[in-house]
Design a protein that fits this description.
7-stranded mixed beta sheet; flat
Length: 488
C-alpha cells in the first residue's frame, strides 16, 4: 500500500488538513490514515548557517575579516527542531511514500520553509502545491482537488531565497562592522535600520523645531464664526479685531456650496489592517498579525499575509450571502444594499485576495474568542460591510466675508446620506472620530450680517508628530518615494 505525504507548517494546520483527508491516527510527529501521512515543520526547521560554519575565524568579530560573502550557501537544521526534522526526513524518504504535497502557508515565507526542508532531506520525489486562502474544510477539500505543480512557485521560492540571503548579508556584515567600529554590539538589519532611521530623523526634526507664534482674528456672526488669515504680529490682529467691532457688520462676498462624496474604503490587506488596529485598538503590528493568524488557523478569516485589497472575479456571487450572514451572526448593522462590484477586481489580486471573514465565522459565537481576536474579527467583519456599502454624501459650504477691509472665511457641512460611514460609526466604538464641521446657516451672497463679537487669538506652529504604529507603517509603505525615507 502506497502513501501520500502532506507537509504543513504548524501542528494546528496539519490537524485541520488531516481531518479533511481522514488521517485520524496519531503517531510520533505525524498523523496517518486513509492513505495519507500528514506532518508539519514547526516553523523554520532549516535555517541559514552561521558565519563560523564557513570558517572558524568568523567565530570572532574582527574588522579585517569583513565582508563575509559565502561562495556557496550552507543550511543547517535548527537545534530545537531536530527531532521533528528527523520525522519529516524519514517520511519523505520512505519507500512506500509515492508522492507528497507541500501544504505550508500559501505565501513567500511558507514556500521557503517547505522547500528548504525538501532540499535538506535530499528527497528526489516531485511534489505538488496546496494553495488556499482559507482553512475552512471546503477550502482545504477544494485545494486538494486542484493541486498545483510545484514549478508554478519556483519564482516565489527564488524571491524568498533572495530576501533571506539579503537579510543575512546585511545583518551579519553590517552588524559586525558597526559593532567593531564603535566597540559595542549594534544590531543592523535590512528593514529594521531604515525604519529606525525614519524614527530618528523624525525625532531630530521634533527636537530641532522651534514653535513660532501666529495670530488670527475670529468674528462671531450669530451662531456662526468666521476666521481671518494668519498674522505674524499680535498688534496687527488686535487692530483688526478692534476695527471689526467698530464696523459692526460683515459683508457676504461669496457662498460656494459643493456636493461631495466619499467612496467606501477597500477591503483590508495586512498593512491596512495593522494600521487600523493600531489607530483604533492600540495593537502593535505584530499583535495584529498574531491575532489574525490565529483567526485564520481557527478558520474564521482568510489568509492574512496578503497585499491585495480586492476579491477575484469568481468570488462575486458569494459576496452578498457572506455579507448577510456575517451581519446576522455578528449582530452588526447590515448595509442597506450590497455593492459587490466595489470589492471585485481580479487584476488587483496577486497571490491572495483581501482579508475577509469566512462562512465558518457565521456559525460561532465571537464572545468565545480571546479579547484581542474578538477585536480584530470585528474590524474585519465591519470592513467587509463598509466596503460594499453606499457612498457617504454631503454638501460642503465655504463662505467668504469682508469685514473692516479683511477677508474672513467659514466652512460648514450638511450630511445628505451617511452611507458606509454610518455603518462604520455604529459598529466600531472609539474608531478615531473625525472632527465634523457644523452646518452653516442659510446666508446669501451680497447680504450684510451683524457682528456679535470679535477677538484676536494666539496660536503656535506645531512640530511634526511622533510616529505611531499606524503612521510608521504608512511611512514604510512610501519610504524613498520622494528621495527621503518615510516622506513618500
Amino acid at each position: 500500500m502506497g502513501y501520500r505525504l502532506a507537509l504543513a507548517e504548524k501542528p494546528s494546520v496539519a490537524q485541520a488538513i488531516a481531518k479533511v483527508l481522514g488521517a485520524s491516527k496519531r503517531c510520533d510527529g505525524y498523523l496517518e490514515g486513509n492513505g495519507w501521512l500528514v506532518s508539519w515543520c514547526v516553523g523554520h526547521l532549516v535555517e541559514l548557517a552561521e558565519p563560523e560554519s564557513y570558517d572558524e575565524k568568523y567565530r570572532k568579530w574582527r574588522y579585517e575579516d569583513l565582508p563575509i560573502f559565502p561562495e556557496k550557501w550552507k543550511y543547517e537544521v535548527s537545534p530545537g527542531t531536530r527531532k521533528q526534522f528527523a520525522v519529516v526526513k524519514e517520511l519523505m524518504n520512505r519507500s512506500d511514500v509515492t508522492s507528497w504535497v507541500l501544504c505550508t502557508d500559501s505565501g513567500r515565507e511558507g514556500e521557503l520553509i517547505g522547500r528548504l526542508v525538501y532540499h535538506m532531506c535530499g528527497c528526489p520525489k516531485p511534489f505538488r502545491r496546496l494553495w488556499i486562502s482559507s482553512m475552512e474544510d471546503t477550502a482545504i477539500r477544494d485545494g486538494f482537488s486542484n493541486l498545483h505543480p510545484s514549478s508554478e512557485y519556483d519564482n516565489l521560492y527564488q524571491a524568498a531565497l533572495c530576501r533571506e540571503r539579503a537579510d543575512w548579508i546585511v545583518g551579519m556584515n553590517v552588524t559586525r562592522l558597526f559593532s567593531c567600529l564603535y566597540g559595542q554590539t549594534l544590531a543592523v538589519g535590512r528593514v529594521m535600520t531604515p525604519t529606525l532611521s525614519m524614527v530618528v530623523m523624525r525625532d531630530a526634526a521634533i527636537d530641532a523645531f522651534k514653535p513660532e507664534p501666529f495670530y488670527t482674528v475670529r468674528i462671531m456672526l450669530g451662531e456662526m464664526t468666521a476666521e481671518s488669515g494668519r498674522f505674524a504680529e499680535k498688534a496687527e490682529a488686535e487692530d483688526l479685531a478692534k476695527r471689526s467691532l467698530q464696523s459692526g457688520t460683515a459683508f457676504v462676498k461669496k457662498v460656494e456650496r459643493k456636493e461631495k462624496t466619499e467612496k467606501p474604503p477597500a477591503l483590508y490587506d495586512l498593512t491596512s489592517l495593522q494600521r487600523d488596529a493600531n489607530r483604533i485598538l492600540g495593537f502593535t503590528a505584530q499583535q495584529t498579525l498574531d491575532y489574525t493568524q490565529s483567526l485564520y488557523e481557527k478558520k474564521l478569516v482568510t489568509y492574512p499575509r496578503t497585499d491585495s485589497r480586492y476579491l477575484t472575479d469568481d468570488m462575486a456571487g458569494m459576496v452578498s450571502g457572506l455579507v448577510k450572514g456575517v451581519a446576522a451572526a455578528y449582530g452588526i448593522m447590515n448595509p442597506v444594499s450590497v455593492q459587490a462590484s466595489q470589492v471585485i477586481n481580479s487584476s488587483r489580486v496577486s497571490d491572495h485576495h483581501a482579508i475577509i471573514p469566512t462562512r465558518t465565522m457565521q456559525q460561532m459565537d465571537p464572545a468565545e474568542l480571546p479579547s484581542g481576536e474578538q477585536a480584530i474579527l470585528r474590524l474585519v467583519c465591519t470592513r467587509l460591510l463598509v466596503s460594499v456599502g453606499e457612498e457617504h454624501r454631503y454638501v460642503e459650504t465655504v463662505a467668504a466675508f469682508d469685514c473692516a477691509g479683511s477677508e474672513f472665511t467659514a466652512k460648514g457641512k450638511v450630511v445628505l446620506e451617511q452611507g458606509w460611514k454610518g455603518v462604520q460609526r455604529r459598529n466600531l466604538k472609539g474608531n478615531g472620530k473625525e472632527k465634523e464641521l457644523q452646518p452653516l446657516p442659510d446666508i446669501k451672497e451680497g447680504s450684510t450680517l451683524p457682528l456679535r463679537g470679535a477677538d484676536a487669538r494666539e496660536g503656535k506652529t506645531t512640530p511634526p508628530r511622533r510616529f505611531t504604529g499606524d503612521t510608521l507603517l504608512q511611512a514604510m509603505e512610501g519610504a524613498g518615494a520622494d528621495g527621503c525615507p518615510g516622506e513618500g
